[in-house]
Write a structure and sequence with these properties.
alpha+beta, Arc Repressor Mutant, subunit A, Nucleotidyltransferase, domain 5, two-stranded antiparallel ribbon, 13 helices, 39% helix
Amino acid sequence: MVGDRKSHQVKAQILVLYKKGIGKKRIAQILGISKNTVKGVVRTDQAGPSLVVPGKSSSESCEADWSSSIDWEKVREELGHRYATIRCLHAEHAPAGDDYLRFWRELKRSIPTDPAERARIRFQHKPGQRVEIDYCDGIGVTDRKTGATKKTHLSAGVSSFSDYTFGEFSVTQKREEFIASQDRMHYFFAGVLPYLVVDNLKSGVSQAHIYDPDVNPVYIDYANHMEFAVLPARPRTPRDKPSIEGNIGVIQRQFFAETRNRVFYSLGELNVCFREYLKRLNNEVMKDYGVTRAERFATEKPLLKPLPAVAFETAEYRTAKVHPDCHIQVEKNFYSVPYRFIRETRLRMRNLNRHWP
């Protein structure tokens, strides 16, 4: 019969419109189907049971049985743990031989979300505009004599337009290491991008705030010297710097996995190995663009500002209270000040020379 070739949903819609008094020709025009199809569906309904509320098919029943066999509440709880991926949870909780795509879709449906919270703005980055930086836990370095493992940190910087990636491991995240790492990043890029998005690290942002963050004064001096603007990301908002978040994830899945059974005995050895990996990463073809990161970066490299000819001198800012004897103390040295400033607080700084790598 003609009407049997249409789905249950279309048949049900035809019957709903027909029972509202709409003519068969008009129904065909509304649904964009043949008038004969409408006649066939109506004739079949009049001769047999109604199709408005069809019963569940056997496939739907099997789907319900499969879904009930998985503890989705436990799956959602474990999904919030660090390094827990959907593929890993599929292997642990889904029945043997089950399709991963079906598990993924059912998990997404079972997580209640507000459509307003899921709305995002797609970034359209211009070449040579901004770079994003961030830290993550690094790979341990082992002492040859004692066998003790020292923790390291991975500092990474990524061009938002090309995803061209720089990174290195350091022992600390202190301000000196923080600025020195960015010195080497700009040297690696062979230029300076006008905007730098930084996470809310104390070395860069003294006081995090969603609207008015307080940037570290030493870091402001460095930014003024290099001629770039600091754009602190909002607290607990990783989507403000999606490029660096995505590339750190790539590094963790690739480099960290490649070296998981290797022992590094010095920070230099670790960084040499990582630089070799970065060459491979930046010269691999990207699936989304069909070219490498290095090729995309070559298009924006002429737009970068040149490196300053003079090395940056960092200054350490501290406050000092004037003692009753009209002196302030700076690194075990005492300096006299006018008596009218007794018990007041003043700012002092100490210059430290820093050179290009």
